[in-house]
Design a protein that fits this description.
The complex is a heterodimer of chains A (410) and B (103). With 410 residues, chain A is of the alpha/beta class. Chain A is built from 7 helices and 24 strands. Chain B has 103 residues and is mainly alpha-helical. Classes of the chains: A alpha/beta (410), B mainly alpha (103).
């Protein structure tokens, strides 16, 4: 039997386990997926927990629900990959051989990388919403919050789900308005980028949206440290911002297993060919999702679009053909903006998010770079699609490759 | 794209003043560019510029964090060397393209 290993059973790894199982000859291939945890989190849902829109129950299911019965599952931490010998070492000493390997170990938050962040105010007045623990702690904090300075700060680029902090401040604005304390809450959005978003057209649209909602944007702020006594965040250029409650996107890094394997860049992301999705170091290793260093968003939609390209290239590699499928960096993000509305962006390596309609040109129903009710329903429906269609590797009615149809050049 | 004469040499830059072709770069161009923006380049500045050019030529993506780990200057010192935007400014003077924060 030939062996196909998948490291990581999050969104990317689970999708690939399903796709491989449906495509490969199971008489010939043994497919194994490895992850240390048994719970699958619907991560886009974390954002809604602080505002009581979702509870913890809405975002968790056992990982085992989503694996095909013929795939071998090992719940164990991974020590490292030895690419030269086609081996993966597990913690505890077990050794697994492979013919092909997919790395899908994602990205994790590292608050300890920023001095003063994970200190005495952690989960008291400083919270992240990228972990279930952080989202729930913030939910409890907001219950008794009577007003003050709310600061949303992004520590480092890249980070998972680039629109999440924008959604967070919009949802917070609506939540405090509903609670009747909006006039007592001062909301500031702090980013190391030069605007609300990197790409110019979307940055303008989202920047205007924040301004309309009276949310202050502080740009080019590169966080150095947090002063717990003074309750301030301090940038490398000495600028300071006071907070009463700080919500933070901690530094994002790839798995420490990648570092132990000597396969990562300075943030432990795996250097990967941005078109073929093959590791730059080993011919029989591919990388999917947040674990790679490809220059696009770290987001489930990207992993989904990329998984279709990856599947084609994996088959080409197995059959000894050149890898012809090319990933274009396609990302598609719903942006919750509060009050039952949402915006949508669709873009790739070369084309920035533009206004228009999606997925049908001229019809929609979703509006690109527009703030509409139907976009919000798209996001709400997506949770069902995620659990029932996407993770199981089934076809979605959206092409992997981005299209210009329905988009307007600005 | 704009054609510009700087330090006696004709070069092509984009709307934001970044060199289109890194091979047109000379030390004199860097000195002039920085001077136009009120910054005098020291040897330390040039060590950074050389580092950026080397890494870019090797196809590596750059971040402030990475340059801060280069051993030449830490992030704090980078902000002192290039006030306002270390990576954006140093990339410009190094004759490489503007760093894209890929989101």
């Amino acid at each position: 039997m030939k062996k196909f290993l998948i490291l990581g059973a999050g969104t990317a790894g689970t999708m690939m386990a399903n796709k491989l199982y449906n495509t490969l000859d199971v008489e010939e291939w043994e497919i194994t997926i490895i992850d240390q945890y048994k719970t699958h989190y619907y991560q886009p849902g974390f954002l809604f927990i602080p505002f009581n829109i979702y509870t913890k129950k809405d975002v968790i299911k056992p990982k085992s629900n989503f694996f095909p019965s013929g795939v071998k599952v090992i719940y164990n931490a991974i020590d490292k990959i030895v690419g030269e010998e086609n081996k993966v070492l597990l913690e505890g000493g077990r050794v697994l051989q492979y013919d092909y390997l997919i790395i899908a170990t994602g990205t994790q938050t590292h608050p300890e990388e920023t001095p003063g962040l994970k200190d005495k105010l952690w989960y008291k007045s400083i919270f992240d919403f990228y972990t279930i623990e952080g989202a729930v702690a913030l939910q409890n904090y907001f219950k008794n919050f009577e007003g003050g300075k709310l600061v949303m700060c992004i520590s480092e680029i890249p980070y998972k789900c680039p629109v999440a902090p924008i959604e967070f401040v919009c949802l917070a604005e609506a939540y405090f308005t509903k609670k009747g304390i909006r006039d007592k809450v001062d909301i500031t959005y702090v980013t190391p980028m030069s605007g609300a978003f990197t790409k110019p057209v979307a940055s303008k649209m989202l920047g205007d949206l924040l301004e309309e909602k009276n949310i202050h944007v502080v740009s080019d702020f590169y966080l150095e440290r947090v002063d717990n006594d003074k309750k301030t965040i301090i940038a490398y250029d000495e600028r300071e911002i006071d907070f009463d409650v700080l919500t933070i996107v901690p530094v994002n890094m790839g798995s420490e297993m990648i570092e132990r394997s000597g396969m990562g860049d300075d943030l432990n992301f795996v250097p990967t060919d941005k078109q073929t999705l093959r590791s730059e170091k080993f011919e029989n290793i591919f990388v999917l999702g947040d674990a790679s260093n490809i220059p696009t968003s770290k987001a489930g939609s990207v992993a989904h679009f990329a998984s279709e390209i990856l599947m084609e290239n994996v088959m080409s590699a197995i059959e000894g053909r050149p890898l012809l499928a090319k990933f274009d960096g396609h990302a598609n993000c719903y942006i919750e903006t509060g009050y039952g509305k949402g915006a949508l962006i669709d873009f790739n390596y070369d084309t920035e998010p533009l206004p228009g309609t999606f997925p049908l040109p001229g019809i929609g129903p979703f509006g690109l770079l527009k703030n509409t009710k139907i976009n919000h329903y798209g996001k709400i429906m997506f949770r069902w699609i995620y659990w029932h269609v996407l993770l199981k590797g089934k076809e979605m009615p959206i092409e992997a490759e981005m299209t210009m149809a329905g988009k307007k050049r600005v | 794209m704009v054609e510009k004469t700087i330090a006696g040499k004709s070069i092509n830059v984009n709307e934001e003043g970044y060199l289109i072709d890194p091979s047109q770069w000379t030390k004199e161009i860097a000195i002039e560019m920085a001077k136009e923006e009120g910054l005098e380049l020291s040897d330390k500045h040039f060590e950074i510029l050389e580092y950026l050019r080397e890494k870019t030529a090797a196809g590596e993506a750059l971040s402030i964090r990475k340059v801060g780990k280069s051993g030449i200057a830490d992030i704090k010192q980078l902000y002192q060397l290039f006030p306002g935007g270390p990576l954006k400014l140093s990339s410009k003077y190094a004759g490489i393209s503007k760093p894209t924060s890929c989101v």
